[in-house]
Specification:
427 residues; alpha+beta; 12 helices; 22 strands
Length: 427
Amino acid sequence: MAGLPVLSAFEHERIRVSDQPTVGALSSAEVARLERIAERRPGFFTRQHHSVKLAQHVGLVDVGGRVLEVLPKTGKEQSADDCRGTLLNLLHHAAVLPTALDQGVGQSHERRHLLDVFISAFLDAVATIARAGLLRDYVSHEDDLPMVRGRISLGRQATALGMRPDRIACRFDELTVDNQWNRVLKGAMEAVRPHIRSQELMRRWTELAGIFDEVARVEVCSADCDSLPASRRTARYGVAMQWASWILSLCSPSLHAGEREAPSLLFDMNALFETAVAKHWARRSRGSAGLRVHLQHSGHKLAVLRGSAVRSVGLRPDLVVMQANDARLIGDVKWKRLEVDRSGFLEPKREDVFQIFAYAAAYQCCSLALIYPWHRGLEESRETVMELPSLPTGRPLLHIICVDPVSRRLDTLRGTGVVGEVLGFAA
């Protein structure tokens, strides 16, 4: 099967730049397309001498002629298949995926490139629509017919057809599948076809493409998916349109005048890990009286300007568990590789400890958690709790928590106690 070849890399990895694209290198033309991404996502990569260094964004970029697949990595021991599974799992927990993939992230997905997984899910959504039949709408037509259909257009009949007794000017409504919803789906189907790499996906694509024979072929972009008017009749198109929007973000550039950006589908791993953990905590805390999990909580400030009542230095913790107006737990989520010290204790970054202590002081909260991704290098580590300098409300305890990003349940492998105690679920 043809399809665009895929170059796989990992976040924060250096990729060599050469005159021509090779298995492990980008060409100068491909780097130029990456620079268009960097205009919209500052820090996506940095240009170095004969190489580029990727940052924390993962996902897919069409670099022209092939696709760059950037994968997350938390441990040196992880394979590309493991890393794909990690990304799909976090997308699932963060509720970013338009629909679950086989009730979560299965091993069958981990053996394919991300693009293959997304195309397969898109085709599944289109197949679901096809089984129920494409949406049909009435469309008004005007035509000169040999017999009456619908209503007679008296003005045209009396003028242009006044001397044509064999033709009747008619206005009529026709029920058709050629509407804007199906045109966008067909456009997404056409856009994804060059990216299909396997015979199985191509077979499924061919079977589904036939149902769009009566639909006009138009060029579409991801923005067209968002502009469609929603109603109860079109609700069943929701999942397919979300996948179509993703597919078009990658496979079709924006059609707006003046925009020449490289198609991409990228996720910030810092934000993705944070959202996945927050939503997991929120789900686990349901039923706990009066508790609410806030993501990126704002409103508290660290300092007061001397000589005035003006508060300064705004704070925005990643996670705050509130009960009424009191902070019960503050968590900061870090997509960083955690190490252990010589005694086997988890060793958080110094700047992370400084930051969360500032949160504790501003919120007057004594239950703190730094949350990092688990990796196999931490298997022999010890539970780690740090005592921080006292506040008026008591002495803050900082729990170092490790969450397994590959687990379907986002299992906490270190530091579960403080979370369970506050949120009300068992360790």
